[in-house]
């Protein structure tokens, strides 16, 4: 079972999970997720690492004042958990919105990030399709969480994966009852404002960008753009949807650990 810790930072009680021993690896989750939901499947494949999974504002273990979110706000929360855990330098992986947080963190703290992995990430959400999606997420999170939960399942997972779940209604009911839906709305609104284009050139850590070829939430071309914008970045692919790392954590972990072991 994960050791759960909390640190107070600028009015928020920021929670994180701390597992294992070895070189530290920080995992930063995506919109509507948390460190447990997005990364639990990866943990068995990271047995030689100390893994920190912070929950930033709006998610999981963290309680805050429901302020308007910024990428820097989330970066500072992640750094607060790392400092609280007594870690100096570390490898860093971000998923989806967490990729933007990871890019910004790596640009601000180049001496602390040894290697960087960006999974299903994006530079900004300026295109009409992304803006339609994130506005819809924010609206549904506040007005109809059950519909948003269904939408996220349909667009986040593959046909085969969902077809193998025999009681989807119970899964949706659990998501609705256990979700911080105002937090999801705030995070979706941040998705609309994200722009880390200026930070890409400031990333010094060796970087692996992992795209999802069948992604319906984030255009796979966004991963190509991320890799093109970071000096000497490597691009790899998961043959799956946006939540491929949850469907096939073994494959995702293999790509991640090969990069971190180089």
Pick out its properties:
plasmid, 44% helix, 8-stranded mixed β-sheet, alpha/beta, 262 residues, globular, 19% strand
Average pLDDT score? 98
Low-confidence stretches: none
Order of helices and strands: EEEHEHEHEHHHHHEHEHH
Strand pairing plus helix content: what structural class?
alpha/beta
Beta-strand portion reads: 15-25%
Tell me about the biggest sheet? 8 strands, mixed
Q: What would CATH call the architecture?
A: 3-Layer(aba) Sandwich
Protein name: Esterase/lipase/thioesterase
Keywords: Plasmid
Domain AB hydrolase-1: 23-249
Architecture overview:
With 262 residues, the chain is an alpha/beta fold. The longest helix is centred in the middle third of the chain and has 16 residues. Helix 9 links the parallel strand 7 and strand 8. Helix 2 crosses helix 3 and helix 4 packs antiparallel against helix 5. It contains 11 helices and 8 strands. 44% of the residues lie in helices and 19% in strands. The chain has an 8-stranded mixed β-sheet, with helices on both faces.
């Amino acid at each position: 079972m994960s050791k759960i810790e909390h640190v107070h930072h600028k009015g928020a009680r920021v929670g994180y999970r701390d597992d294992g021993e070895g070189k530290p690896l920080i995992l930063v989750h995506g919109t509507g997720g948390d460190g447990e939901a997005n990364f639990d499947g990866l943990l068995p494949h990271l047995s030689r690492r100390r893994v920190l999974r912070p929950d930033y504002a709006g998610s999981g273990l963290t309680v805050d004042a429901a302020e308007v979110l910024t990428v820097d706000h989330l970066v500072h929360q992640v750094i607060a958990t790392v400092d609280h855990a007594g870690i100096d330098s570390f490898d860093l992986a971000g998923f989806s919105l967490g990729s933007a947080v990871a890019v910004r963190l790596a640009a601000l703290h180049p001496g602390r990030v040894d290697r960087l992995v960006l999974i299903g990430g994006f530079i900004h959400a300026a295109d009409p399709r992304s803006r339609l999606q994130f506005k819809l997420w924010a609206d549904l999170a506040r007005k109809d969480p059950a519909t948003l939960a269904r939408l996220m399942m349909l667009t986040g997972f593959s046909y085969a994966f969902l077809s193998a779940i025999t009681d989807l209604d119970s899964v949706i009911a659990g998501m609705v009852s256990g979700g911080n839906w105002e937090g999801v709305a705030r995070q979706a609104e941040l998705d609309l404002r994200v722009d880390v284009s200026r930070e890409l050139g400031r990333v010094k850590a060796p970087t692996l960008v992992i795209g999802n070829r069948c992604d319906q939430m984030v255009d796979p071309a966004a991963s190509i753009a991320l890799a093109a914008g970071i000096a000497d970045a490597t691009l790899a692919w998961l043959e799956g949807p946006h939540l491929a790392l949850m469907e096939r954590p073994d494959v995702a972990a293999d790509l991640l650990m090969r990069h971190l072991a180089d």
